[in-house]
Specification:
heterodimer, A: about 160 residues, alpha+beta, five-stranded mixed sheet, about 15% helix, B: about 525 residues, mainly alpha
Chain lengths: ~160, ~525
């Protein structure tokens, strides 16, 4: 294949640029543990009322001191509401839906995950102190835009 | 329209009709999100219009234009369309399917948006109508490939005309992509909507949707690239800088379009981080052929500008035919892609995605890419095709030349606002950005600017439709201008990039590598299905 000199330079530059982007992504993923949810855990969406964990959504502190928030998304609300968590500490969310797909987005933060019926979405994140709006960002029905909640991150006394 | 372009013309006619209807719905949405009231504004109208706008623009307008362009290019480049009876049968079938789906949407029975994620459930006629459109497009692909084979027998050893090479790549991508869609719709959604099975697995369905959903983007983009590579340098008055790199680019898309779908599912459960990272790497690889395209096309335009007497480092740019409706549409479409492409790289970034996933940023993003890069290329393509197919000169040329500039202005207002609002956290697809009164002020200015942009876009859309319809019905009859394609600086040579069978096999292997293990792993779990919901 005959490739002109300048185009060769451009093609190598393009390769280098993409390698640089991918390098940053891979190093970021490996070192500072920036990960999207990746766990595979199933749950029966029609039997959540009998489920030991999702029948009682709420903020829980585990024996090792870590904070777990169990969230149930349903048309058109998140439970619990408001969610009160300690600020500046890693908080692990465990999220599922009892009906259709929903999004769980804490406005102004990187907390953004899908709630899919039949599956548990787990991710860990920490918040700066403040009050945040939680929005549903996956269309879930005619009142989708009114599916909002509140998250309050409080500093430890 | 009669004669050899009847097939192509009929398809393009349907695409323009779908575009016209969908344009009005776009404005309704932008006004509603900005809380600007208008008669009959309500929640169900809003979500019906989101569904209709998405289906009519992203599936009907694009698919029909691409089929029409394909038939026209086959007539001109290969001198034939083999299997016209089958092609007409497919046209009627796709039309019946599209009307079926559209009626179901407009009656408010299938407000599931164009992503139709279960367990939201539409009426069977929505899924069956969409299936008829896709099956008809498979017949279109078969007719195109048969036409190529017939030409190939008479022309052994000659590389296919570049425009046909690009259309073959488009068709191969479409077959690979719609395999995933068929599994979802025929294998899961239709039996479930008919009540034959009680439940559905939403994550498995969604995974097959995105197997289809990302390569769909290249099904739209490649026909635009065909116009950029083969027609644009000619209209600009120059030559294609490199024919062989063009051939490589189209094949790279065949290989890399499909095994990348997890970048739409970064924040889903059930797919491991490692596989998400693997799809990230492949997604970045698919940026490469577009970067090569950027050089080849801009270099071709420089050749044209200098042949027109342009001098100096940038002087050639002014010499280009900015007053030609086709040229202006394509050039502006390309400029939009500079922004849209980089936005796409952010969407595909493993860690940054969490910031913008399902926010208004995404609406902003795909209106620059498919809405402008592809849409404006197809509008420009219409200005090029119509006089050549009908023998009628463009009517209202002043509207035709204003239209692409209005589009880019409207889109700059619309899309930039939604990009910013999205970074600030505005969820996508909301009836009102006030989010139940929680966030009234934060996004208001941005959504109002977007609504102004949407009105400008509607004016531009109406200009396009007016020019197309007026040309068709009342353009001045004369001798049709010839279909002329750009010569390349070096003559085309047969190469490994013409080995379509081989590359298809490589593409299938890549898809199996990228999707095989995660899907099998998912299917082997104890999974719980979802019953249907219709909260609309």
């Amino acid at each position: 294949m005959n490739v002109e000199f300048y185009e060769k330079i451009w093609m190598w530059a393009a390769t280098g640029l993409l390698a640089l982007f991918l390098g940053t992504i891979v190093i970021g993923a490996a070192s500072s543990a920036v990960h999207p949810p990746g766990k595979l855990e199933t749950v029966d969406p029609t039997k959540l009322l009998e489920h030991p964990e999702f029948s009682q959504p709420g903020v829980k502190e585990r024996a090792d001191g870590s904070v777990v928030v169990v969230v149930l998304a349903e048309t058109y609300a998140f439970t619990p509401d408001p969610i009160e968590v300690p600020a500046n500490r890693p908080v692990t969310f465990r999220l599922t839906s009892s009906d259709v797909m929903h999004g769980f987005q804490v406005v102004g933060t990187n907390a953004n995950a899908m709630a899919i019926p039949g599956y548990v979405t787990e991710f860990t994140i920490s918040f700066k102190p403040g009050e945040y709006t939680i929005g549903c960002n996956e269309y879930c029905g005619v009142m989708h835009h009114n599916m909002v909640g509140k998250l309050i991150a409080k500093e430890a006394k | 329209m009669k004669g050899r372009f009847a097939l192509a013309g009929s398809h393009i006619g349907v695409s323009i009709a779908a575009f016209a209807v969908a344009s009005f719905m776009g404005v309704l949405q932008a006004l509603s999100i900005a809380d600007i009231s208008f008669p009959r504004r309500d929640e169900s109208l809003f979500y019906v219009s989101v569904t209709a706008h998405g289906v009519l623009m992203a599936l009907v307008f694009t698919t029909y234009f691409i089929m029409g362009l394909g038939y026209a290019l086959a007539e001109v480049n290969l001198g034939r369309v083999v299997g016209k009876a089958a092609a007409w049968f497919a046209f009627v079938m796709s039309l019946a399917g599209s009307v079926m789906a559209a009626v179901s949407i407009l009656r408010g029975e299938s407000t599931v948006l164009y992503t139709f994620y279960p367990p939201l459930q539409a009426k069977p006629s929505f899924y069956i109508g969409a299936t008829l459109l896709v099956v008809a497009s498979w017949i279109w692909g078969g007719v195109m490939l048969a036409s190529y084979r017939s030409w190939r027998k008479e022309n052994p050893g000659v590389p296919a005309p570049l425009a046909i090479h690009g259309m073959i790549a488009t068709i191969l991508i479409w077959y690979l992509a719609t395999a995933g869609l068929a599994v979802e719709v025929v294998g899961m959604l239709i039996p479930w909507s008919l009540g034959w099975v009680a439940t559905i697995d939403p994550l498995v369905a969604r995974t097959f949707f995105w197997w289809f959903g990302h390569p769909l983007v290249y099904f739209w983009l490649l026909p635009a690239y065909v116009l950029w590579y083969t027609v644009l340098p000619k209209v600009a008055g120059g030559k294609l800088f490199s024919d062989s790199l063009g051939r490589m680019v189209f094949i790279l898309f065949v290989l890399l379009s499909t095994p990348v779908g997890f970048h739409h599912q970064f924040v889903d459960p059930g797919i491991s981080s490692g596989w998400k990272l693997a799809h990230t790497v492949l997604t970045y690889a698919v940026i490469y052929p577009s970067l090569v395209t950027a050089f080849t096309i801009v270099a071709s335009l420089e050749v044209a500008g200098r042949m027109r007497g342009g001098t100096g480092l940038f002087g050639w740019i002014r010499k280009l035919p900015w007053g030609d409706p086709f040229f202006a549409s394509i050039a502006l479409a390309m400029i939009a892609f500079v922004f849209g492409g980089w936005g796409g790289a952010i969407n595909a970034a493993y860690a940054m995605n969490g910031m913008i996933h399902n926010t208004a940023w995404i609406q902003g993003h795909f209106h620059v890419t498919v809405g402008t890069t592809v849409g404006l290329s197809f509008m420009g393509g219409t200005y090029w095709l119509l006089p050549r197919m009908t023998g009628r000169a463009l009517r209202f040329r002043a509207l035709a030349i204003t239209q692409p500039y209005l589009w880019i202005l409207g889109m700059a207002l619309f899309s930039t606002s939604y990009h910013i609002a999205g970074i600030r956290g505005l969820p996508r697809r909301v009836y009102s950005a006030s989010l139940n009164g929680e966030q009234g002020a934060q996004w208001h200015t941005l959504t109002v600017i977007a609504a102004v942009g949407a009105v400008v876009l509607l004016v531009s859309a109406l200009c396009y439709v007016t020019v197309a319809v007026a040309t068709w019905l009342g353009g001045k009859k004369g001798e049709a201008p010839a279909f002329e394609f750009a010569a390349s600086l070096r003559p085309p040579v047969a190469s490994m990039w013409d080995r379509y069978g081989l590359w298809t096999v490589v593409a299938i292997v890549l898809i199996l590598l990228a999707y095989g293990y995660p899907i099998v792993h998912l299917l082997m779990q104890a999974r719980y299905g979802s019953p249907p919901f219709r909260p609309f």
